[in-house]
Amino acid sequence: MSEKKLKFNSRAIHGGQRPDKAYGAVMPPIYQTSTYAQTTPGAHQGFEYSRSANPTRTALENSLASIENGNYGLAFASGLAAIDAVIKLLEPGDEVVSTNDLYGGSYRLFRQVFEKFGISFRFIGMQNADTIGDHINEKTKLIWVETPTNPMMNVIDIRAVSDLAKKHNLLLAVDNTFATPYLQTPLDMGADIVMHSATKYLGGHSDVVVGALVVKDKALADQLYFLQNASGAVCGPMDSFLTLRGIKTLHVRMQRHCENGRVVAEYLAGHPKVEKVYWPGFKDHPNHDIAKNQMRDFGGMISFVPKGSGYADAIKIVEKLRLFTLAESLGGVESLAGHPASMTHASIPKEEREKSGVVDSLIRLSVGIEDADDLIADLEQAIG
Ligand code: P1T
């Protein structure tokens, strides 16, 4: 059966995978080698040096391409290394239009690294896609979209942004970390590049830091491959193996993340001491209809603001949580809680941060796949 015909769950397990050529190993071995023997210069079995390509990484890259409905996958040493490669497609003088609510590290890379090299970034709200065109000019080359956004859970209409990008001949890159291809496949909606912090749901077990890019277009893949090899921030063989192993259960984990996410979001929304809950599954979420249209379910990421609270009260709650671990990151099997203002988004100036809703009392939850009752009991004792 042609692999393209397989449905998502089958591709998560089999996509791009063949038993290993040497001994038929069903899981690709961890090819922990930097280099490969040649019989005469240039005569090798497809691998020369592990920065350029490594069989374990290639197995992961093929899987990434398959689950995102792309043709080419590239695995990097971190999500930020993957973003770094995308921005290096640009030239000094070029402009990028980006969502204003995004991971703090992406913002820091854009503002504090790439602006020095003459690339400018405009951070705008994209919840209403009709307004994005106002920020495009002759220097604009790329639209950078995170959806759902980290941590405010805004949802951006990928098809609408893609139409705009095509009209102005711009590249569209979508950070698909929060949704994963289980919930949405941006390339099918017209995006040119899909990016992941595979550290999160794709790996799924909080044991690797890995980044990914997937594209359909060969010329774009060649350019990104050139940058991956030239800059060298590649995913190592052990991390490739672990990420590939994670992807094989992505669909079952995501199903449970979504189920538990719904239970936790509804619990918080009904809690007398909770002011506001951000989760795209609520009918009154401003972009619920877009989410329903482009996502298969609503995920396990939730942010909330306790009632009448400030910085100190939010800190008290996250300190009291026991089953939810207070930690950076998200998307693993275990539930995590974070305080974006002081942790993941601390590199965004307070003024900027608060414009997009990241107030000092905001708490972010990555709902894991434990028993939902235990998660609720933990929240109950922490919120009071
Ligand atoms: O951490 P790294 O693998 O380099 O990925 C960066 C990144 C990119 N995009 C999104 C949407 C992300 O959430 C991240 C990393 N985020 C966290 C560590 C966090 O706790 O939000």
Characterize the structure shown.
By secondary structure, the chain is α/β, with parallel strands linked by helices. 35% of the residues lie in helices and 15% in strands. The chain has helices at 8-14, 55-67, 79-87, 104-114, 158-167, 180-183, 218-231, 237-247, 250-269, 288-294, 311-320, 350-355, 372-383; strands at 72-76, 95-99, 120-124, 140-146, 171-175, 193-197, 211-215, 274-278, 301-306, 325-326, 336-338, 363-366. The strands form two sheets. The chain has a seven-stranded mixed β-sheet with strand order 1-7-6-5-4-2-3, sandwiched between helices. It has a five-stranded mixed β-sheet with strand order 8-9-12-11-10, with helices on one face. Helix 2 (55-67) packs parallel to helix 8. The protein is globular, with a radius of gyration of 21 Å. The site of ligand P1T has 19 residues, from helix 3 and helix 4. Ligand P1T binds at residues 78-80, 103, 105-106, 146, 150, 175, 177, 197, 199, 209, 211, 328-330, 338, 344.
* Number of strand elements: 12
Q: What is the number of helices?
A: 13
The backbone outline, from C-alpha atoms, is: globular
What structural class do helix, strand and pairing data support? alpha/beta
Largest sheet: number of strands, sense, barrel closure: 7 strands, mixed
Rg measurement, Å: 21 Å
pLDDT averaged residue by residue? 97
> Span from first to last CA?
55 Å
Kindly state the percentage of residues in helix: 25-40%
Instruction: Give the helices and strands as they follow along the chain.
Output: HHEHEHEEHEHEEHHHEHEHEEHEH
Identify every distinct bound molecule in the structure, by name, code or SMILES: ligand P1T
Give start-end ranges of low-pLDDT stretches.
Answer: none
